[in-house]
Design goal:
single chain; Aspartate Aminotransferase, domain 1; four-stranded mixed sheet; 14 strands
Length: 489
């Protein structure tokens, strides 16, 4: 089931050293055991005053949006406390809001803009494409196969690639492909992993052990063959694979290779290789969800870094460098031919149907081709990873010096800053989860607001994406701002 390994020229990876798993977990567990420490009440009033006095346009637009958009935002990334900040301009490491306030942009659109926001060279190619043929034609375009070729060149286990419109679509298609290829039904995911919002994957989301807790509006049958295991628990995974073998077998095990939510709940460095062995033993396919890690960890993705061969790879985020319709599935030809497209497909062939009118449109493909080539030319993953290392090291020094219990670690350009430990909670302790989750979540939201008030844009106040645009000067400026926030605790 393993794909042919194809190694690009001496790829460099953004992760200079894997975090010490025991040290990180000891810190997170200690943080979870003690009462959370957030911004002091008096100081929080000053933080909120920033939004009242400096962000009137964002506040007005958020109110207007709430009248016509459920909750006032279209995506979880856009939620900020006390209200959504409206973006007006982005460039490299910076974002300006509708009131002309400038922020160091560590959100980076949720991770796809590894080159930095609105990268000039890719933008010029996108403009050229729009002038020549427009963003979509419904026909084959030159950059469809050029993008597939460049992905195959750099990703070590990809022979063929099928582009779709998002990471959610790609995960959905990958599971359908695995079931088609193997003829089996069960799919096992890691609790806390996020694999999009298709019916079958709204299961054990964000909090391990929660099963269908968030599956409102989804019939039970849709998740009847979805199972979850807790992160790092290989014994539990083996038992589920053994039981499933008695019931027809497991089609696939799907993982986020850094751990749930891009390493928010980290896995050991050996975890993916051990999962690979179990999949081999029980005849299940291994799906790597590289929506975040693909190209961000390195040109060979997480599979190259860990030297583990997934049978199917899911792409998103960095695939198009921040342009729209970023999603796709890759793997060996033997498996991928079940994704053959077109209305002329023989009815006798074993086909996993996927579609999408805007999938593989010329604009997305040209942006993806040039973004990936620029990542390789500039060694963007390594540069972004070095920025992440510098930021994480500086944050640790400040936190230790100020005597705060917070936990910082990074996997290259993905930096985790845990201040309330809400993201570590699980159904292993349901009483604590019910009693403390909302309060701890609010403290995380207040920290995010304090970062914003000090010119720092993060993902939910807990995750930071660095990019190639984050020079030493940008990181040093950011560290000074973070220290000002921590002094308000």
């Amino acid at each position: 089931m393993n794909a042919l390994v194809r190694t690009a020229e001496a790829p460099s990876y953004a992760i200079s050293a894997w975090p010490n798993y025991n040290e990180v977990m000891d810190g997170l567990n200690a943080l979870l055991k003690q009462p959370p420490r957030g911004i002091a009440k008096a100081n929080m009033a000053k933080v909120l005053d920033y939004f009242e006095t400096k962000c009137p346009t964002s506040k007005a637009w958020a109110k207007r949006a709430a009248e016509v958009i459920p909750g006032g935002v279209q995506h979880n990334l856009a939620f900020n406390y006390p209200f959504a900040i409206a973006a007006a301009k982005v460039d490299g490491p910076y974002m300006w809001d509708a009131d002309a306030n400038r922020y160091i942009d560590f959100l980076q659109a949720g991770g796809p803009t590894l080159l930095g926001s609105n990268y000039l060279m890719v933008r010029e190619k996108a403009h050229e494409l729009i002038d020549q043929c427009g963003p979509v034609t419904g026909l084959l375009h030159e950059y469809e196969f050029k993008l597939a070729e460049v992905i195959r060149r750099y990703m070590p286990n990809i022979e063929m690639f099928r582009m779709l419109g998002s990471g959610t679509e790609a995960c959905m298609g990958a599971i359908r492909l695995a079931r088609t290829y193997t003829g089996k039904k069960y799919v096992i995911k890691v609790g806390g992993d996020y694999h999009g919002w298709s019916d079958q994957m709204v299961y054990g989301m964000r909090v391990p052990g929660t099963g269908r807790r968030e599956a409102t509006g989804i019939p039970k049958g849709a998740t009847a063959y979805t199972q979850e295991v807790f992160p790092n628990e290989l014994g539990t995974l083996r038992r589920k694979l053994m039981l499933n073998r008695l019931r027809g077998g497991t089609a696939a095990v799907i993982v986020e290779p850094l751990g749930p939510e891009s390493g928010t709940r980290p896995v050991t460095q050996e975890y993916n290789a051990e999962v690979r062995k179990l999949c081999n033993e029980f005849g299940a396919l291994l799906i790597f969800d590289e929506v975040v890690t693909g190209f961000r960890v390195g040109m060979g993705g997480a599979q190259g870094y860990f030297n583990v061969k997934p049978d199917i790879t899911v792409f998103g985020k960095c695939l198009t460098g921040g342009y729209l319709m970023a999603g796709g599935i890759g793997g060996p030809k033997e498996i991928m031919m079940s994704l053959v497209g077109g209305i002329g497909t023989s009815s006798s062939s074993k086909r996993a149907f996927v579609g999408g009118t805007l999938s593989a449109n010329p604009l997305s493909c040209v942006a993806g081709y040039y973004a990936i080539e620029e990542m390789a030319r500039t060694n963007a993953p390594l540069l972004a990873g070095r920025a992440g290392d510098r930021l994480a090291k500086g944050l640790k020094e400040i936190i230790n010096r100020l005597g705060l219990p917070y936990v910082v670690y990074n996997m290259g350009s993905i930096v985790h800053l845990q201040t309330s430990a809400v993201l570590l909670m699980s159904m292993r302790n349901p009483i604590k989860l019910m009693k403390e989750a909302n309060a701890r979540k609010h403290i995380m939201e207040e920290m995010g607001a304090a970062y914003l008030a000090h010119g720092l844009l993060t993902l939910a106040g807990s995750r930071i994406y660095t990019s190639m645009a984050d020079t030493d000067a940008v990181i040093d400026d950011a560290l000074s701002r973070f220290e000002s926030v921590f002094q308000l605790v």
